[in-house]
Amino acid sequence: MKKNILYAQSGGVTAVINASACGVVETARRWPDVFGGVFAARDGIAGVLDEALYDLAGETAQAIAGLRHRPGGAFGSCRLDLDPYATHRHEYERVLEVFAAHDIGHFLYNGGGGSMLTATRLAQAAADMGYPLDVIGIPKTIDNDLYDTDTSPGFGSAAKYVAVSTREAACDVASMQATSTKVFILEVMGRNAGWLAAAGGLAERDAGELPLVLLFAERAFDAERFAAAVRERVEHAGYCVVVASEGMRDGQGEYLSVRQKSTVRGWTRLGGVAAQLAELVRMRLGYRTHWAVSDYLQRAARHIASQTDVEQAYAVGRAAVELARQGRSGVMVTLRRLTDEPYGWETGATDLQAIADRERGVPDEFISADGFGITPLARRYLRPLITGEAYPPFRDGVPEYPALRHTLRARRLPQYTPRSGDYYGTVA
């Protein structure tokens, strides 16, 4: 008996997450004898709890194809994970009630490590409650920190943005350093993993071409060594460009910059490292500085997306549907590297329990001996991931994204009311 597919997006979105959605919908539509309808949850798992499900049957092939070019989350995402099954069984009962009401037999969750934990818990709960459900994770994160996959879709495009922006900023600062700015600092995302900072090293084609200082989340920050590295580069080249992970910590393991802490969930919002470093440079070295935070721009920059990244994002969406067709569950789609030069890859699958809520940082062999750059091995790994251009269609000078109808299915259940202590309803 055919069952419906429900696709949902979770966590911080990327420039290519909708390419994965495109892969899901286009592939599912090729198997009408296997699958029923294809739905998308509004705002991830929050939309499932709310019974807010988009029916994609009315979306045109043109609109679905346009998802390849659209940044953000076309169906809405959320910063929300399901609480542990042992203490919050009612959340899972609600999810499965929604699934039963809409004949959902396949749940495809597109997200990062935390989202894979939710997917794992849901697969276990469905098995415990005897509900027939295939749960398949689709990888996504600009942090590139998911386990057991060569890379995470979304990272390649964010890395390309960081590399290009760093190279362009270096040209700007080089032209002004005689009478103006000598140090430019770019803060990039990466709470516990410095992959995007590493991508800043791709701004130079060969090591030593530019006066760069990279600061990794994996290395404890040492103000004296940092100031010495900046001084050496300025004295040699006249200027310096710094790319810093937002999640840098000091020698005691504390984040250098914390904007906000949640007393509800223990969640920490980072930000402000660039400004802090700029003040350090000004006070210790007396150099004029400028700084910027790439923030949402690095993950939304579809106009400079990596062709490799777009292709891989689509491929993991397609592979998820193929796994569902095979009756697989409790797995996440992965990317396997076959060769470096030329770059070759294929999709695979790994056990959700093995990778859920785990983080993979930049390995030591990718970080230069002085701790402020990347090694040839890192370049060999990173370069294929940012290769190729995949420009979106433009109209009147700006990208054009086909509109979706976003038709919600009629509700069949009472409105859901979160209980005291639930994650849902307490964190936006």
Automatic annotation (TrEMBL):
Active site (UniProt): 143
User: What GO CC terms are in its UniProt record?
Assistant: cytoplasm
Per UniProt, activity regulation is:
Non-allosteric.
| Gene3D superfamilies to which the protein is assigned, alphabetical | 3.40.50.450, Phosphofructokinase domain
Pfam families, per this entry? Answer: PFK (PF00365)
User: Which parts of the sequence bind diphosphate?
Assistant: 12
User: How would you classify this enzyme at the top EC level?
Assistant: transferase
Site feature Important for catalytic activity, where: 140
* Localization, UniProt: Cytoplasm
Name of the encoding gene: pfp
The protein depicted here goes by the name: Pyrophosphate--fructose 6-phosphate 1-phosphotransferase
Q: What does the record give as the organism's lineage?
A: Bacteria, Pseudomonadati, Pseudomonadota, Gammaproteobacteria, Chromatiales
Q: Which cofactor does it need?
A: Mg(2+)
